Amino acid sequence: MKIAVCIKHVPEGTKRIDPGTKRLDRSGEGALNAFDANAVEEALRLKDAAGDGEVVLVSFGPAKAQDALRKALAMGADRAVLVSDEAAAGSDLVATSYAIAKALEREGVDVVLFGQQAGDSDGAVLWAAVADRLRLPMVSQAAELTHADGKLTVKRQTEFGYDVIETSLPAVVAVSDAINEPRYPSLKGIMGAKSKPQETLSLSDLGAETARVGAEGSRTEVIGLNDPPSRGDSRKIEDDGNAAQQIVEFLAEKRLV
Amino acid sequence: MKPAEYPPPFRSADYVAPPTDPEDERIDVGVLVVGAGPAGLACAIRLGQLLEGAPEIRERLGEVPVAVLEKGKQPGSHLLSGAVVNPRALRRLFKGRARIEDMPFYGPVHDEGVYFLSPKRALRIPAPPTMKNEGNYVASLSQLGRWLAERAEEGGAMLLPETAAQKLLVDGGRVRGVRTGDKGRGRNGEELGNFEPGADLVARVTVLAEGTQGHLTGVALDRFGLEGENPQVWALAVKEVWRVARPLRRVVHTMGWPLRPQAKYREFGGSFIYPMGDEMVTLGMVVGLDYRDAELSVHDLLQELKTHPLVRRMLEGGERIGWGAKTIPEGGFLSLPRRLHAPGLLLCGDGAGMVNVPALKGIHYAIESGSLAAEAAFATLRRGETPWRPGALAAYDDAVRQSFIWRDLREVRNMRQAFGRGFWLGGALAGAMTATKGRFPPGNARTELDVEQDIVRSDRATSYPAPDGTLTFDKLSSVFASGNRTRDDQPNHIVLRRDVPQELAELWTRMCPAQVYEVAGEGVAVTPSNCVQCGAITAKGGRLTPPEGGSGPEYTLT
Amino acid sequence: MNTLVFLEHHGNELLKPSVAVLSKAASLGGGDVAGAVIGKDVRALADEAGKFGASRVYVADDAELEAPLPQPRVDVLAQLVRDTGFDTVLLANSVLGADVAAGLSARLDAGLNWDLTDIVLDDGKLVGKRPALQDSIYVDVGWTAKPRLALFRQGSFDPTATGGSAEVEDVTVQLEDFSTGARMVEQAHEESEGPSIEDADIVVAGGRGLGGPENFTLVEELAKALGGAVGATRAVVDAGWYPYSTQVGQTGKTVAPKLYIACGISGAIQHKVGMQASGVIVAINKDPNAPIFEFSDLGVVGDVHEIVPKLTQLVTQRKSS
Q: Which end of chain A, N or C, is less surrounded by CB atoms within 10 Å?
């Protein structure tokens, strides 16, 4: 069973937006995004359950993304592919999903796993976009995943409780952090990671058109940065026996109760 | 009452063991370096250079000729210093390979000033000769560490971050390597779902470069009877990094306020304020841990310092972007281990106490000792040699004794001890020592252990500024600024007597810059996930051991 | 501007956030706004859409669309955009909405800006506003081409009824083969124990100020009365008063409910970063200098043991009247 895990490069430490380029300042050290660790763990479990197979990591980002990949390799993934190209900087969802889909097409996998959230752009929904480009069925918010008879059964977390969804393979699944507790790499795993195959591909290696990535391939832009709107008037009161009543009135005013 | 009356239930012997993993599961490396700080990385870099010219030896060392363990998230995460670095050891290490201009320094020191502070004034005083910094460079040790780590990897070393060295593996009287720490234990030590046991890492030579309060270094000193004639003492340094509106154009040191000169308080130390390029400034408060007042808090003294007009002006319009804390060994020459080696073992850097207190320098000694350790280890890896033969590694001790490390430290050996007599008398003695290059006063002063200091009480805390969130901060905000995001349900890694008198609990509560301790009903409560592993507790009655690898601060600019 | 709003429903009701986005779209002054309702037996929902600002509602009603799965909806919306020429598609964030928006973005190669809390039409240019970096900064975002897709944070707007009515147009569906690859086996039922902390609209959290684990019942009862979830601080979780799964903060969960009530919580930064994005923050604490009062909308200096039970009582009364 061939499983691809898409890894997002997230700079560690102080996160800031560079006021000049208006992009996330990615010069900080790279780290494996906690949600991607869940995806890697799930991939390893699927492989173990299937008895054999391959877990390949696919990432799209600057050279620093190697650090996150190495961590995932230390956990037990078999090899890593990093798509890194100067021209790709500033890619938005449209451009990123295009590049990642190209890389995945090249691999030809049974299951593509994503971690549900990226720490730097909360709510990023890369998986749905990539699934559409690959023309594959997609299930998100997976809190449980089982593989049997060429199908995946997913317990999907929604606002209304859990759905049970079945999908044929190949498929794209985004896993939530409730799905598992990622393993710590063993020391042997960490040491072995270095010698596992790690490819770095440029856009042309992928057969991807430069015009469809980077700022050129993006369809959204950052116009400016502002301070957050102030929370508005904040009130502070001392309880004189009526605090509970005052709170209810406040909540009613805000139509929260 | 003194902290020594409530020693921690710590036994060195608990951290020494023979390898227990089956032989085929042990991880075998050539030379094992514990600690990716300047000493450890210099050792790894020098070994890489030597092995480059000796491929037969490199082959015999197996798949991993040189491994460097680091308990922090990555090299640099636990590195903190001022720092003004003397480049001499770096020049020697990188001779013909890299120049000072290639290294991540913030420029040479151009101008400096030393001030004696009173609450509202700053009196410029001539810089003591030990504090002259011409020819030295300002650096962030954390950044320098990351740069050195890259060089070490380029030279073939394998860096293993997020890995703590928990036990010293000793077999048949020789050091075999270390056992790494477990991961995935819960608060009560129970194995969690993703529990991963540590592993036995064996090597021909083990180099301990753990830095201040080195865990296995302490264990090794005990196990092999290597302690020096004087016990070790420490200072606690708490520092911040600021983005500033106006560049600071000189290196500044201060003495006096907010420390008190009376001998009964034993407050030895001062502050440093260094420019990091045009856009950043780093400043810190350093205080000897032989202080006595239960209400003393170095974290809060730093906040107080910032309210002084001299300092406030420098920080106006700026923003705090980093914070950290770490101890500095201050015993100097007389507290050095009597031997720096044992069968299969070498000790380097701050872990061994190689710090020149009056000059506030230790990084170049760490680098030089790492280099010398590499050379001594390499010599024992030649065919026909065994590193654990008694005396095989003695060449390291000889080399250190012939180096500038020894010379420099010997010259200033009594300086720190003099300051135990109070600022004025101490200052006079220090002046005399400098003038006579260490010949006067003669003999070797006794150092008193930090835990032997009687606790006194004052109302020191009343003058600590309330945190305003812009210039001054509370401890939890500082812990946040250190990048600490440690998992909360880890086992407690601090060995401590819990049922202690309130006064002692208060001493610890104020002492700790990270708010780990709290006065609780019958003694002291501990929040281990706040810990930034500075080591102060080890000096004042407890014992810090390494938590799960990857925990603690994530320093980048300290 | 030719706008289409995706209207999500559950049971036989349009979901409030979708309706709110529809109202907002209608108020932008960019021309007529259409809605899309997709599912089985959903035609009746079209009326509601009209009341909240849609001049036209496209209804795709089919057994294949019954399950709330995203990919068939992408097919429908993409078809609508291509056939009708919409240049702007707006959606409210939800588990379903997010997947639909992103799938549509790839299908049409259309720019998607998400997590928006506001949108304005500025001189013909559409500008979205969104928070970033744990709500510490706000970013103005735009689109460089059409069609333009926008996904809004829940609770960004309130639905305003304009009392209009909409023309209904039935749409026949052409689904891609891969869109039916995922099949609903069993659809979620309403959770009986209350919402999970991540999804809850209301979170009531307790901290050390509660005094002891036995006092957590105060928090639980208030949460129940409000229909919310229970949260806890690191300190009380460390002390074993409540499970780790309820911890809100830097090393716990990050939540952004419409209402966050902090009981006996001091508000250290480690806690703050886990809940500062909440819509409205009410804090009750005995200590007038507690840092939480610096970022709460209503700060109450008082005893949680007295205030919280009374509050629970009043809320319960109010809800039953």
A: N
Lowest average pLDDT, out of B39-43, B285-289, B415-419, C225-229, goes to B415-419
The verdict on B303 touching A (C-beta cutoff 8 Å) is no
What are the extents of the domains in chain A?
2-217
Q: Which two tokens stand for residue A126?
A: 């890369």
Chain B contact for C234, CB < 8 A? yes
Mean per-residue pLDDT of chain B: 92
Same fold, C3-180 and C202-320: yes
pLDDT (tens digit per residue) in B153-174: 999 999 999 999 999 999 999 9
Q: Give the one of C74, C95, C302 whose C-beta lies nearest to A158's C-beta.
A: C95
C-beta separation of C148 from C87 below 8 A: yes
pLDDT at A228 over 80: no
Q: Does the CB of A227 have a partner CB in chain B at under 8 Å?
A: no
Check pLDDT > 80 for residue A68.
Answer: yes
Above 70 in pLDDT, residue B383? Answer: yes
pLDDT at B36 over 90: yes
Nearest CB partner across the interface for C183, out of A167, A222, A247: A167
- State the smallest CA–CA distance between residue A159 and chain C in angstroms: 6
Selecting from B187, B480, B489 the residue whose C-beta is nearest the C-beta of C270 gives B480
pLDDT of residue B442: 59
- How far away is chain B from the Cα of C272, in angstroms, using its nearest Cα? 11
**Interatomic CA distance for residues B292 and B503, integer angstroms:** 11
Flag if B488 and C250 touch (Cβ within 8 Å).
Answer: no
Q: What are the tens digits of pLDDT across the range A85-99?
A: 988 888 889 999 999
ipTM, 2 dp = 0.89
User: Residue B488 and residue C235: Cβ atoms within 8 Å?
Assistant: no
Nearest chain B alpha carbon to C270 = B480
In angstroms, what separates the C-alpha of B9 from chain C's closest C-alpha?
A: 23
| Contact assignment for A183 to B198 by CB distance below 8 Å | no
Report pLDDT digits (tens) over C119-146.
999 888 999 999 877 677 889 999 999 9
Q: Which helix (H) or strand (E) holds B293?
A: none
pLDDT at residue A121 tops 70: no
**Is residue B64 less than 8 Å (CB to CB) from chain A?**
yes
> All domains of chain B, ordered by start, with CATH?
3-99+143-231+333-411 (3.50.50.60)
> Which of C234, C237, C269 lies at the smallest CB-CB distance from B480?
C269
Residues B160, B161, B164, B167, Cα dihedral to 10°:
10
Domain segments of chain C as ranges:
3-180, 202-320
| Cβ atoms of C274 and C217 closer than 8 Å | no
Q: Which CATH superfamily is domain C3-180 in?
A: HUPs (3.40.50.620)
Give the nearest chain B residue to A195 (CA atoms): B63
Separation between Cα atoms, residue B31 and residue B38, nearest integer Å:
17
DSSP H or E stretch at residue C183:
strand C182-186
In tens, the pLDDT along B404-458 reads 999 999 988 877 666 555 555 556 666 666 666 666 655 566 678 899 999 999 9
Q: Chains touching chain B at 3 or more Cβ pairs under 8 angstroms?
A: A, C
Judge residue B286's burial from the number of C-beta atoms within 10 Å of its C-beta, 0-12 exposed, 13-18 middle, 19 or more buried: buried
**Residues of chain B with C-beta less than 8 angstroms from the C-beta of A29:** 74, 146, 556
Helix (H, G, I), strand (E, B) or coil at A134: helix
Intra-chain end-to-end CA distance of chain B, in Å: 36
Which token pair is B309?
A: 């007009």
Cβ of A186 under 8 Å from any chain B Cβ? yes
Fold annotation for A2-217? Rossmann fold (3.40.50)
Q: Is any Cβ of chain C less than 8 angstroms from the Cβ of A139?
A: yes
**CB contact (8 A) between residue C307 and residue A244:** yes
Topology classification of domain C202-320? Rossmann fold (3.40.50)
> Looking at this protein, which amino acid is placed at residue B25?
E
Check whether C271 has a pLDDT greater than 90. Answer: yes
Radius of gyration of chain A (CA): 21
pLDDT (tens digit per residue) in B82-127 = 999 999 999 999 999 999 999 999 989 989 999 999 999 999 988 7
